[in-house]
């Protein structure tokens, strides 16, 4: 709770800044882990476990019958729909055949055959390169990288080959039917190499799309959009939500548009922007702010990191006058800086904060 | 009768510091050494391989037995501590592969270098760190070898470069260390280990090429335990002859469950590298009893019968023990005594690892950059600033 309390206090300072519209104070860091301030509660430094509560969205009945699914089941459902609809679709990656280390591909090999759901050896650069090749011929390639932390051997293939294919061939060729899926974000015990959030590295590259869902319902719709989108997409799945997030998800396929942020709660005093797991943390902060400080927060889930929905965020900041962006990834060069500077370019100076992770935040529990 | 009693009591009194059993054992005649036959290694681009017989001295035998038993018990203790949630995070155990770490160490000098992937507890021990620092590192305490900040996958020691989480990434590093060895001209070699899963990573082949091109004293070692996490080698590799995968680099395939075989092969490979002929590749055929990590039961991709079969027929500690006992290098009781001592040592180490305090929070920001003077790092909330000292 200390984490949430510190963020609330940060908001308090924001409110105190009032209408001065000045950049003020140190940036507050309110990641899922909180440390007590020195001098508070006996100055005994305690560690806290990663904390958030998944908040499901109300059931959406516009897409037909729904079923209770957690995040990995909603991913399986999306992949199932894709393979059923598109005869050229193939799924490959490390250990996907038996169902995957997070059970996202359970049952698909039995249903669609070993020619369409198959394992690759341990070679991320090879997996993505191979996927680009499949996509260039027109087939739909859904590649899985086992953890986002391992995506870096494939970075060259993504940035230099996939992202630039259409441009450099003058639209003669493209690998738009490539989608790369990877588990993303902190999980509590992941330490250096099972917790990373590398979306900012890819945001720097035109030609690809980066999408991060916050819930099973969002995940299925966004993944189906990524698969059908005619640009190479990277779909990061918050691994801590695989089991923790349970919602009613439509069984039939449906799409959620890319590059559209969602205002999940309207408010008038401050705009809070987040994506992935952090949306749930922010929701909790918003309700605490309303109870304790009487602050009305507008919450935006960015959903697509790049190309991102500048209009929705700017319209919201025009309304509220204040912006707070929160993400798990480290502060320097994190995507919050991009959002922040873009909004400033269009709207001028305004009070803003980035609440982000630190290099040391991926601590073993 | 009285004289005999007096004589016995003199002996016992004289040997008062040793337990009576030790006196009895010392009085038995053991052989000083024995010659054993070992399996011939398969060779690739080599005219000759390591010898097929080797001499094991009693002293060495007891040393290897103790080391292997220590690694085994340490891994089993780590398993126990993990299940009690005293060790958290990731934990990759190497029981079953003791002959690899002890055998490799037996074939090289302490001044040689070694780098491996994440199944590194055994190597951390054989490279010279005491068990208590290893267990304390696993439990994340300040007595640990990486001060409690590294954990299972990030243990380091002198001339031991870890302990690396990203599969295959340590191999080009090993080639680089070998370059430094050659440059420094001290006749040192670098053992660069990786697994059968990592053998399919592209950067390994880049390292092969550089090492061969510049004739680096690098021994590439593929620890083939038949499974890359849950994928068997046949399903991951077009060629499971890992010792041939270096193509232009000569290779040998070694029985990794026989410590003497590993030792001889390592000596051979080290001599090859030290003579300036360039890199060499060794495939150690070994087996791990545990799953890939503590979150893998290890039986969904292989049968319990298979694990049991390896345990009963090829267990490295059992093989060494049988050899020593059958050639009169040691007695069963003596080896049992070593077992008891090792168990006690591990218990003490586990006690230490459980009781030692965690590293202080002030150290959270240390060693991010090398910096003088120390600089400030923002902590996880706006009031906490860590000093980054390095």
Automatic annotation (TrEMBL), chain A:
One of its GO terms (biological process) is branched-chain amino acid catabolic process. It is an enzyme of class 1 (oxidoreductase). InterPro entries: THDP-binding, Transketo_C/PFOR_II, Transketolase-like_Pyr-bd, Transketolase_C. GO terms for molecular function: branched-chain 2-oxo acid dehydrogenase activity. The lineage of its organism: Eukaryota, Metazoa, Chordata, Craniata, Vertebrata. Keywords: Oxidoreductase. It comes from the Eukaryota. SMART domains: Transket_pyr. This is 3-methyl-2-oxobutanoate dehydrogenase (2-methylpropanoyl-transferring). It holds the Pfam family Transketolase_C. The keyword Oxidoreductase applies. It comes from Mesocricetus auratus. Residues 69-244 form the Transketolase-like pyrimidine-binding domain. Its cofactor is thiamine diphosphate. The gene is Bckdhb.
TrEMBL record, chain B:
One of its GO terms (molecular function) is pyruvate dehydrogenase (acetyl-transferring) activity. The lineage of its organism: Eukaryota, Metazoa, Chordata, Craniata, Vertebrata. It catalyses: N(6)-[(R)-lipoyl]-L-lysyl-[protein] + pyruvate + H(+) = N(6)-[(R)-S(8)-acetyldihydrolipoyl]-L-lysyl-[protein] + CO2. It comes from the Eukaryota. GO terms for cellular component: mitochondrial matrix; nucleolus; pyruvate dehydrogenase complex. This is Pyruvate dehydrogenase E1 component subunit alpha. CDD domains: TPP_E1_PDC_ADC_BCADC. It comes from Mesocricetus auratus. The pyruvate dehydrogenase complex catalyzes the overall conversion of pyruvate to acetyl-CoA and CO(2), and thereby links the glycolytic pathway to the tricarboxylic cycle. Its main location: mitochondrion. It is found in: Mitochondrion matrix. NCBIfam families: PDH_E1_alph_y (TIGR03182). PANTHER family: PYRUVATE DEHYDROGENASE E1 COMPONENT SUBUNIT ALPHA, PYRUVATE DEHYDROGENASE E1 COMPONENT, ALPHA SUBUNIT BACTERIAL AND ORGANELLAR. Residues 67-361 form the Dehydrogenase E1 component domain.
């Amino acid at each position: 709770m200390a984490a949430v309390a510190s963020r609330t206090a940060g908001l308090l300072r924001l409110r105190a800044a009032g209408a001065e519209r000045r950049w003020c104070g140190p940036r507050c860091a309110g990641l899922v882990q909180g440390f007590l301030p020195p001098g508070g509660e006996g100055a005994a430094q305690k560690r806290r476990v990663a904390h958030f509560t998944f908040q499901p969205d109300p059931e959406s009945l516009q897409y037909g019958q729904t079923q209770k699914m957690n995040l990995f089941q909603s991913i399986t459902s999306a992949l199932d729909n894709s393979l059923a609809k598109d005869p050229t679709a193939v799924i490959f990656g490390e250990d996907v055949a038996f169902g995957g280390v997070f059970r996202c591909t359970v049952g698909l090999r039995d249903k669609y055959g070993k020619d369409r759901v198959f394992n690759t050896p341990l070679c991320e650069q090879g997996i993505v390169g191979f996927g680009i090749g499949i996509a260039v011929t027109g087939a739909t390639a859904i590649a899985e990288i086992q953890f986002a932390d391992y995506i870096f051997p494939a970075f060259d293939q993504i940035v230099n080959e996939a992202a630039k294919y259409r441009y450099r061939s003058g639209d003669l060729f493209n690998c738009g039917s490539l989608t790369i899926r990877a588990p993303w974000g902190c999980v509590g015990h992941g330490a250096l190499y099972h917790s990373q959030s590398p979306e900012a590295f890819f945001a720097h590259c035109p030609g690809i799309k980066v999408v991060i869902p916050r819930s099973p319902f969002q995940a299925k719709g966004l993944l189906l959009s990524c698969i059908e989108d005619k640009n190479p997409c990277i779909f990061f799945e918050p691994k801590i939500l695989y089991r923790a997030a349970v919602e009613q998800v439509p069984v039939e396929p449906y799409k959620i548009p890319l590059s559209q942020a969602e205002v999940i709660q309207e408010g008038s005093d401050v705009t809070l922007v987040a994506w992935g797991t952090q949306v749930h943390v922010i929701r909790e902060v918003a309700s605490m702010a309303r109870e304790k400080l009487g602050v009305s927060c507008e919450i935006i889930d960015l959903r697509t990191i790049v190309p991102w929905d500048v209009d929705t965020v700017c319209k919201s900041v025009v309304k509220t006058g204040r912006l707070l962006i929160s993400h798990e990834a480290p502060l320097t060069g994190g995507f919050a800086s991009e959002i922040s500077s873009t909004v400033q370019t269009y709207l001028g100076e305004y009070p803003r904060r980035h609440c982000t992770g630190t290099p040391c935040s991926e601590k073993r529990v | 009768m009285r004289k005999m009693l007096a004589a016995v009591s003199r002996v016992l009194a004289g040997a008062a510091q040793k337990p009576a059993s030790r006196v009895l054992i010392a009085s038995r005649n053991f052989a000083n050494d024995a010659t054993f036959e070992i399996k011939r290694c398969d060779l690739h681009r080599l005219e000759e391989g390591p010898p097929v017989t080797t001499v094991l001295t009693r002293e060495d035998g007891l040393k290897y037995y103790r080391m292997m038993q220590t690694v085994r018990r340490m891994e089993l203790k780590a398993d126990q501590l993990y299940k009690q949630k005293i060790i958290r995070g990731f934990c990759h155990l190497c029981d079953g592969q003791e002959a690899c770490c002890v055998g490799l160490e037996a074939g090289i000098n302490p001044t040689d270098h070694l780098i491996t992937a994440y199944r590194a507890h055994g190597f951390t021990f054989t490279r010279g760190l005491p068990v208590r620092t290893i267990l304390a590192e696993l439990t994340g305490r300040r007595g640990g070898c990486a001060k409690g900040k590294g954990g299972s996958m990030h243990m380091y020691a002198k001339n031991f470069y870890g302990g690396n989480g990203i599969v295959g990434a340590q191999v080009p590093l090993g080639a680089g260390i070998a370059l430094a060895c050659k440059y420094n001209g001290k006749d040192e070699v670098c053992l660069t280990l990786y697994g059968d899963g990592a053998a399919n990573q592209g950067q390994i082949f880049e390292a092969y090429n550089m090492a061969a091109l510049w004739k680096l004293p690098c021994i590439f070692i593929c620890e083939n335990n038949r499974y890359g996490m849950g994928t068997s080698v046949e399903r991951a590799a077009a060629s499971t002859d890992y010792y041939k995968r270096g193509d232009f680099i000569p290779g040998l395939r070694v029985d990794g469950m026989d410590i003497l075989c590993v030792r001889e092969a390592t000596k051979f490979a080290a001599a090859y590298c030290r003579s300036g002929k360039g890199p060499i590749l060794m495939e150690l055929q070994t087996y791990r009893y545990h799953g890939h990590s503590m979150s893998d039961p290890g039986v969904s991709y292989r049968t319990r019968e298979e694990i049991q079969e390896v345990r009963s027929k090829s267990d490295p500690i059992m093989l060494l023990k049988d050899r020593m006992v059958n050639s009169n290098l040691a007695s069963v009781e003596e080896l049992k005594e070593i077992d008891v001592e090792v168990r006690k040592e591990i218990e003490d180490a586990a006690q230490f690892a459980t009781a030692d305090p965690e590293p202080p929070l002030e150290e959270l920001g240390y060693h991010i950059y090398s910096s003088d003077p120390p600089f400030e790092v923002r902590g996880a909330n706006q009031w906490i600033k860590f000093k980054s000292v390095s």
